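hiii, so i know i said id send this last week but things got crazy w the move. better late than never?? heres the sequnce for the chain we talked about at the cafe, plus the structure i predicted for it. fair warning i was half asleep when i ran it
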Amino acid sequence: MKLRGVLLLTSAALVLILSPCLGQAVVGGIPYRPGDTVLPGSSFVAGGDGKTYVIPPSAGEFERIIYGKNSDSARQGGSSSAPPSVANPNDGTLVITSTLAGTIYVDGEKSGKIKSMGRLQLEVLNGVTEVKIVYGDNTSDSMSLMLAPGGWGNVDFISNEQKVSLAEQQKARTDAFCTITISTIPPHADIVLDGRPVGRSDIKLTSIDPGLHHLQISRKSYATISEDINTSPAENKVLNYEMVVAYEIGDTGPAGGIIFSDAGPGAKPRYAEAAPTNQSDGTSQGEAERLCKEFRLNGFSDWRLPSYDELKLLHKNLYERGLGSFVKNNYWSSTSYTGHSSWDLSFGNPVASGAAPNYNSYAARAIRTF
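okay and structure toks below
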């Protein structure tokens, strides 16, 4: 019997018998020739097509053995799912598919017909099995394989036309791949493309299908960037982002104060920070405004006395959390009640607020917004 190509599995090793069209195989960088033995689970590169195939890891398992119609053959092995059940555990199961219609012969006996793009499942005796397909034009392809007891094998007969079509489709897709280069300031931001983490900036993403993609960039203490990007076939898209610092209540602000307010994305100003300590523990309202206006910290000079609403946020977001070193006293606001009185808020317990004459002696705390 003339064998065009055989994969023979044993319990300890796999005997690789290659047809002349494939030539030698390379396993782990070492060349192997027909009849050499390699361990299951190895991968090999077929000399004929340069593709990498994986030897099945256990005896009796075949995933794919591919033949072109009237052309050179190629094989592809890999981990398979559980074999189909058979009536006799010593028999094997053979699953045959074909892109063209034809008549199937197993070991010289007519075993059935298969439609174009059809599938045929047969129970066969274990051992060496020869499979042949005769097409409508009386041309044929054939192959042989070894089925272990209870094992199974797949045989695909693929026409040259479909192989060419598939190759052309793959080439067209590969030629259309685009690249996306993403840079951020600061670097080392987490990049997620279409819901899948792809690494950290700065990064160049290759083999990206053209079209619409969703990009998300995140980094601790910075506002997350989330946007849709559109790529054209074969485009090399370069994206540069300068990330904006994102603060949480209680964080240290850019001037060295304590963040006590976040108005949300898009708001201008968005954040407010308070001086880390009082500008006075007891002074008049006019003096409180002057002390806050003249306050300087880390080169920032835009400090001021808070409004009454801002004073309430200071109480809620800092004082009630034990932040900011506030004293149990009333604090002045910049919100006037009359020409001679202003609103104040008690940071004692219970909380009380009201309007007081500007000459009363209350505490002062400077704030700034950005």
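btw Residues 224 and 328 are 38 Å apart (CA to CA). thought thatd interest u
miss u guys!!
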